[in-house]
Amino acid sequence: MWTFTASLPDKTANPYPTNGSINVTNSVVLRWGLVTNATSYWVYFNDSNVFQDDYHNRTPLPTTIPAHCCPATIYSWRVDSSNSSMTGVTTGTVWSFTTAAGPGSP
Length: 106
Prior knowledge:
Blueprint: E1 21-24, E2 29-30, E3 40-46, E4 57-59, E5 65-66, E6 74-82, E7 89-90, E8 95-99
Parallel strand pairs: 1-8
Antiparallel strand pairs: 2-5, 3-4, 3-6, 6-7, 6-8
């Protein structure tokens, strides 16, 4: 009998925008680097660093996720990586950025 064990994926890294970025465009595109042993990613995005059980998007690749943001707002985001059997999920680091002020803002 054959037994296969899926390895846990590594933690996501290399976010764009980088953690702590300011004056980020309100139509930012979120990106991150390829992760070893990951076959899908769960993207959490919020204007706080508390994430509910719901998620913004699930994607099979470390692709770009468009985020539509309000001006002069701090956003937090996290990308969890999962393996092919969905038996292992590695929780990502929480990153944040601040969007630019809108037109006419002081």
